[in-house]
Amino acid sequence: MKKSFILAYIGQVKFILSGLFIFIFITGCSNEFLDRKPKGQLTFDTFFETQDHAIWATNAVYQNFRSWQMCAFPWIGITDIISDDSDKGSSPNDALYVLELDDFTFNSTNTAFQQAWEGHYQTIFRANLAIINIPGIDMNEALKNRLVGECKFLRAYCYFRLVQWFGDLPLITRPLNSDEYYTQTRTPVAQIYDFIEQDLLDAIDALPEKSDYPSADLGRATKGAARGILAKLYMVKHDFAKGAEYCEAIIQSGEYSLLPRYADNFLRVGEQGAESIFEIGAVAVNAPVAGPGATPYNMIQGVRGVPNLGWGFNRPSDNLVSSYEAGDPRRQATVIYEGEVLPDGSTIVQHNSEVLNARYNQKAWVPPHPGLQDNGPGNIRILRYADILLLAAEANNEIGNTSKALDYINMVRARARGTNNFILPNLTITDKDALREKIYSDRRSELAMEEHRWFDLARWGRIADVMGPLMPGFVAPKNILLPIPQSEIDLSGGAIQQNPGY
Amino acid sequence: MNSKYLHAIFFLLTLMPLSAWTQTVTGVVLDDKTELPIIGVTIQEASTDRGTITDVDGRFTITLEKPDPVLIFRYTGYTAVELKLDGRTELEVKMTEAAFLIDEIVVVGYGIQKKSDLTGAVSTVKGKDLARVATSNVEQALQGKVAGVYVSPSSGTPGAGAVIRIRGTGTLNNANPLYVIDGMITYDASLVNPEDVESVEVLKDASAAAIYGSRGANGVIIITTKKGIPRDRAYISGSTYYGSQQITKKLALLNGAEFASAYNDLKGNAFFPDPTVFGAGTDWQDQIYRMAPISNSTISANGGSDQYSYSFSGNYFSQDGIIKNSHYDRLTLRLNAEYKLTPSIKLGHNISHSTIREDAAPDVVGSAYRMPPIYAARDSTGDFSDPTFFGLAIANPAADLFYKSNHHNSGSRLFGNLYVDINLFKDFTFRSNLGIDRVKKSSRFFEPKFEVSASQRNLNDRLSVGIDNGNEWIWEQTLTYDHTWNTDHHLTVLTGYTAEERKFESLGGSRENFPGTAEELLYLSAGNDTTQMNYQGAGDEALTSNIYRINYAYKNRYLLTLSWRTDRSSRFTKANRTGNFPSGSIGWNIGEESFMKQFPWLDRCKVRGSFGILGNQAASSTYPSTGAVTSGLYGVFGPDESLNQGATLISLSNANLKWETSRQTDVGIEMGILDGSIELEVDWYNRLTYDIIAAVPIPDYVGSQDDPVVNTAKVNNQGWDITATYRKGGKLSYNFGVILSPVTNKVIKLAEGRNEIFSAFLQGEPATHTIVGLPIGAFYGYKVAGIFQSQEEVDQSPKIGGEKPGDVRYQDTNRDGVITGDDRVYLGSPIPTLSYSMTAGLEWNGIDFNADVVGASGNKVFNAKETFRFATYNWEQHVVDRWTPENQSLTEPRITNGGNNYRVSDRFLEDGSFIRLRSVTLGYTLPKTILSKANISKLRFYVTGTNIWTKQKYSGYSPEFANGSNSYEVGLDFGGYPVSKAIQGGVEIQF
Questions:
Q1: Which has the higher per-residue pLDDT, A341 or B968?
Q2: Last residue of one domain, picked from the residues B69, B95, B121
Q3: What is the total count of domains within chain B?
Q4: Which domains does chain A have, with CATH numbers?
Q5: Residue at which a domain ends, from B211, B231, B251
Q6: pLDDT single digits (tens) B230-242
């Protein structure tokens, strides 16, 4: 009795021990049991290993140009709205921080600066990752060089925008380690320029011309795009000879031409067209959430009210509307007025009692699309051939090639004129200063509401002259450079210094 | 009889010496009040394994083996009786329904303990004492039942649970408690039918919760479901109730005429020449709310023998929402059973399976609040009204309800555990417990093609379906040693090893352009395949742990508990994977000391103190340390504008992340006074949570989209848990209870070099400011100083710029002469400083009455929904008093659409205090003398009101509303599904 009792216990013990053994076998190799990885998702330790990874990492850099930070309020806010081209728009009290940009009552805590800064540095982060990691991938060499060239172009372009807004910048060329987060300082403008120049020169070497891309890659950065931004950089540095040289290279490449109809540039038909040197592709799909290829760019500027196409921000200003030469059809192609029939003839814009003296940016208008209001399909135009021709005119005028300057500006005017010979006559002025003024004003008329104006005023050194009289809040020279976001100053504990006056 | 007692019995059996002396005793056990026999009383001869139970007539026969036998009579809910036989062979034993069960057995983590031996802060709520509210789940039924447990029924969505905070909000992250249901660990207790609950134990302090280590920091709620009680036949009972719910109140908004008049003032002209023609207009709340039925039925059977015991229940709960088209129903089956395989081996299981169906209504609360009352739901042609005239995107809620309600979810959940208990050698018990939790959910949402307006339309009909699967298992091995020396030293040692794994997966897709809208066509295959979208996601995690606990009691007076848990989690990298969570506590049953005999009114008195360290694993995401590559970052290229896949690392991760940890101290005293008629329990606690996982702001130039999360912040909660009850038994029995839970919450530290976090941005300005020294998510904004009465006043006062007479004048708090963001200040806390409840019960001649009152005070509520004015929405009623040149209001500004008057200010901050009659019940139980002829042992009818009376200062539906899981953003009412009130009538029957 007692014996069998003990045996029974031993049996139980065996049972338990074998159970425990199985248990520890399953979970006991504890580290394997506990090593878990995200599912259905690449992780960084296995990324940048294949050609596809290289392509994807590059595409992701383009993608961020469609982010809110890079194409919505922050972007139009500190390019168009802050300039004399446009007002905030929308109902008077909607998005007061954008109103502060319009009337120069902002300070360094205005979220537009922080968002624009953040968006561009996030793009730079992605570009840095790609530029550093793609060279180590075993893949098609030509493609590898091209992808790195695309990323260098995009990185340089981000820095180019930032340096024009803010001046000296933290120059981030690789992902930072955690002990470097708070210690960066501002690199002087001249060195930022050098860095941009080198990136763009590398990109010009690495990138194909627009026509050399396979059709499916239409919209990627090209040799022409890199030359265009480099030409602008030289113009900013007042190196007009080099500016003219790089514009000339684009013109002589034969890759681009002006579209016969000015207004077509801003319609679907003009997207990635003959006149387009660089634009960010976007497409609307009918999705319940923000579409994977869409942007908020069209929504924020769309007609507010009836038809209900958007929020109605970025109102073409009275100053802009009155700046055109008499009869210049580009004004009509730039501005949507109340009572106007929309470009597709679909409907008439109704009066909206919520909006003061409503006007809308026609260049951001898109017809009804499957993305609903908030998933705009419009490509974001960055660089047009007309822009390069006007830059070429400006550069050539500065270095004394007056006739060339006249040729180029007259090409742009002729296209705008179309068949109406009563307007926009060919220019014949040869006085350098007078011609400069004409080039400047034509540049405004041609490129209005395309987010160039603030940069142009900056390049010409005219921000104070133009904005001062218009905006009582404007303070010179303080407002010529925008404030570094206050959060960057605070977080860096003084390593990042504010621009003067803020 | 449940397993707790069996444990105790088995323990006693091991002490038994063999003996040959026997004697037979018979008797009957009666209720001392009703004189009715009690069925199923356990009778045990002390210090032996001899025992029996009473039969249907309350009778028993037992053969005894000791020469001077002592019998112990036990029955749940009654005070145990210990009887020396003194030679009697025929007994009549009367048992008293316990006013308070002094020797109550309390379920603690991985075991049970006598309440008198507890050294930690553990509160017990018996299933029958849960709030009798109309609800599907235990969470809501816990409101006001436990000191230190703040329960906020967050939403009126059918089937919704509640937000539960134990001893304050201890983290900036997930602050939900852990649930342990019959030994199976989960964060979702929605499956438990309140009627299946035997008891709910809340482990509040570190000593009690530390055995759950890395998941104990927010407190642990242990739910024990009903177990079988051995008796000679099954005990069958049924219950059902049916009720009707409706909205607790309607919001006061402008009617048609008032709106038209306000609009005229806004425009500054007679836009509507005669506003009165609009009359009352449409009350959009009437368009979306309804009276809705709720019903619940349960049938259960319970029984067993000395070889097995079982408890079966089937429950069907059905609730229509007070918002049209919303519905929830659940069918739950539960089988708990235990089998004695050999004298030393027991096998048992607690298994439940529930099936859920849900109809989801679109979110129309906000649009009904905003929709101008001058529109009818449908215009004269029968089409839904298009309100775009007044500006942007207000969706017609009637149209949303019509077009967007084809949204059905269903699901099932198999939840439970299987265990084996082996009584090894003397004093040693081994338990192996396997828990499982399998969840399946599927959703179908069909949105037809429709167009109400440009902002309320769907150009292509679309069907979206999704399937979610979750699968979790836990396997625990524990070994318990339990021994008593010389009757003075009682030692229990627990050691264990556990492992668990959780996996989840979701799969779904959508297509457009269906050939029809008939239900049988609404499957993806019928849609246009060129429009298809699909997704699949998955995740997993694992945890292994060692647990240790020692309980030591000397003479039942001096108590010591030490516990330790080591957790290893897959969420962290190897170096940080292991966390240790120790705790210790002491108790002194001071009432047992001889010098306390001079206070005869004091039945018992215990003081106790504890200290321990707990973790909060839920604070981190599942893979917080892995650099995840984000895909879907498409580039758009080519003449056809194709989406080209894009992917990269967009945010920096932190491989050094580790547990969020909290340190808690607790000091408590428990007293029983005047024969247990007064019970008092007071605890003071201090909980410091540190290494709180928080995203630390880094400069934007680093380029990381999200700030990397690190272990950084510290939050302190300090408070009191006070429970006092008075019970009086007898023919007329009654009880009163009061629970008070004051708590103060304070942020001690945020990130390195960073002492503030702004959150809850409304129109670009933060409504909360989490800052060192203040509660988490403290409200922040401008203070209103008054209304500008004249242009002169505007000119002379500090202002933002652009103000006109009638506008709000904000306070220049920093006295710099202008109103800027620097004038924003702390406005109040969203966290109640005191939550309280009161319970009153009464029984007399079969009539029972019970009322539960709950309340909170000291918190503010931000009426965030009122601050959104992107267009001419309807206004709240107070706008009729608006400032006009003729009516120079001192409090209500002139009418505007957004703008300066709508900046985040104390104008929208309201007192969140409330007191609510959570439930009130009146019941009648028919006398047993009548029923026994019909073989019915109990028949009760009752009527219950849920939330039928509330006194609140807040203008919204309720100061209790749904908030997201973000602790920085609570107390902001954006207009969610409001809680309802209900009246239900029911019947309970037992055979």
A1: A341
A2: B95
A3: 2
A4: 48-207+475-502 (1.25.40.390), 216-280+382-460 (1.25.40.390), 297-364 (no CATH)
A5: B231
A6: 777 788 999 999 9
Residue B293 preceded by cis peptide, ω within 30: no
**What's the sign of the alpha-carbon dihedral A256, A260, A261, A262?**
positive
Cβ–Cβ under 8 Å, residues B877 and B941? no
The CATH number covering residue B68 comes to 2.60.40.1120
The dihedral through the CA atoms of A266, A267, A268, A274 has a sign that is negative
Tell me how far apart the alpha carbons of residues B224 and B308 are, in angstroms, rounded to a whole number: 19
In this prediction, residues B705-724 reach a mean pLDDT of: 89
**Which residue has tokens 């009165």?**
B276
B-facing residues of A in 79-118 (CB < 8 A) are 91-97, 105, 109, 111, 114, 117-118
Classify residue B48: in a domain, yes or no.
yes
Same domain, yes or no: B36 and B110: no
Task: Tell me if A124 and B393 make a contact (CB, 8 A cut-off).
Answer: no
Q: Are residues B7 and B67 in the same domain?
A: yes
The complex scores an ipTM of 0.92
Q: Domain check: are B88 and B110 in the same one?
A: no
Same domain, B160 and B190: yes
pLDDT tens digit sequence for B841-876? 999 988 999 999 999 999 999 999 999 887 788 999
Q: Which residues of A touch B501 (CB under 8 A)?
A: 33
Percent of chain B with pLDDT over 70: 95
Residue B587 · residue B118 · CB < 8 Å: yes
Q: Which of B950, B954, B948, B952 is CA-nearest to residue B975?
A: B954
Residue B295 lies in a domain: no
How confident is the model over B40-76, as pLDDT tens digits? 788 888 777 778 888 877 888 888 877 788 888 888 7
Q: What is the pLDDT of residue B452?
A: 87
B155/B109 same-domain check: yes
The answer to whether position B622 is within a domain reads no
Average pLDDT, chain B: 87
Q: Are residues B86 and B135 in the same domain?
A: no
pLDDT beyond 50 at A168: yes
Residues B13 and B120 in one domain: no
Does the CB of A151 have a partner CB in chain B at under 8 Å? no
Asked if A175 lies within 8 A of B902 by C-beta distance, the reply is no
Query: Residue A220: its chain B contacts at CB < 8 A?
Result: 635, 637
Instruction: Using alpha carbons, select from B973, B956, B955, B953 the residue that is nearest to residue B964.
Output: B973
pLDDT tens figures, B165-213:
888 777 777 888 999 999 899 988 888 888 899 999 999 888 888 889 8
Which residue of chain B has the CA closest to A493? B753
pTM of the model: 0.79
Q: Which residues of A touch B512 (CB under 8 A)?
A: 286
Do B111 and B83 fall within a single domain?
A: no
- A chain contacts of residue B422, beta-carbon cutoff 8 Å: 12, 16
Distance from CA of A351 to the nearest CA of B (A): 10
The pLDDT assigned to A135 comes to 97
Which among B386, B870, B801 has a CA at the least distance from the CA of A90? Answer: B870
CA distance linking residue B463 with residue B513, whole number of Å? 9
Strands B149-152 and B163-166: antiparallel
Select from B46, B138, B58 the least CA-distant residue to B93: B58
User: Which residue range forms the structural domain that includes residue B124?
Assistant: 105-231
Return phi, psi of residue B135, to 5°: -155, 160
Residues of chain B contacting A35 with CB distance shorter than 8 Å = 570
- CATH number, position B188: 2.170.130.10
C-alpha span between B589 and B49 (Å, rounded): 29
Radius of gyration of chain A (CA): 28
pLDDT for the residue numbered B8: 45
Distance (Å, whole) CA B243 – CA B296:
9
